[in-house]
Amino acid sequence: MKDLQFSLLIDFYGDILAPKMRDALELYYNEDLSLSEIAQHMHITRQGVRDNIKRGEQFLTETEARLGFFRRYSGLEDQMEQIRNLALNIREFNQRHHKSVEVDQFAKEIAAISADFLKQE
Fold first, then answer.
1. Are 11 and 58 in a shared domain?
2. Beta carbons of 33 and 27 less than 8 angstroms apart
3. Residue 46 shares a structural domain with residue 14
4. What is the residue-wise DSSP string for 39-78?
5. Residue 40 belongs to what domain range?
6. Which residues contact 42 (CB under 8 A, 6 or more apart)?
């Protein structure tokens, strides 16, 4: 199985890759084409495809090491899931004990906002 992390890094940094590099990476990681299939599609040699992929992987790895957008986004996603779960727990607790309409509404809004964020992927 090909490395899923590169597919995700392409989503984050693909727009700043050289076009041939981006095309080779997308075909390899996202379309699951072989080096030979990509070479035929791009009208270059198999070695040219391999070189584009290796340089692209290096660029993506170095860019993520410097900028860390993917790492930060992944952390944010985990935190948003925790916020959503806590909001649902607050609603459940409120319904069992005090039934404050305001608390229920606030928790419902927090859960909805976090759910919307998580659906954007």
1. yes
2. yes
3. yes
4. HHHHTS-HHHHHHHHHHHHHHHHHHHHHH-HHHHHHHHHH
5. 4-67
6. 20, 23, 24, 27, 48, 49
Long-range contacts of 27-32 (CB under 8 A, 24+ apart): 28/2, 28/53, 29/2, 29/3, 32/2
Angle value at C-alpha 59, between 63 and 20, nearest 5 degrees: 130
> Can you read off the two tokens belonging to residue 94?
């409120």
- Which CATH number belongs to the domain containing residue 62 in this structure? 1.10.10.10
Amino acid occupying residue 114: S
**What is the pTM for the complete model shown?**
0.68
Residue 2 pLDDT grade (very low, low, confident, very high; cuts 50, 70, 90) = low
Categorize the per-residue pLDDT at 113 as very low, low, confident or very high, splitting at 50, 70 and 90: confident
Given a contact cutoff of 8 angstroms between Cβ atoms, the answer to whether 75 and 65 are in contact is no
- Does residue 62 share a domain with residue 94? no
Count of structural domains, the chain: 2
Indicate if 77 and 54 belong to the same structural domain.
Answer: no
Contact 39, 57 (CB under 8 A): no
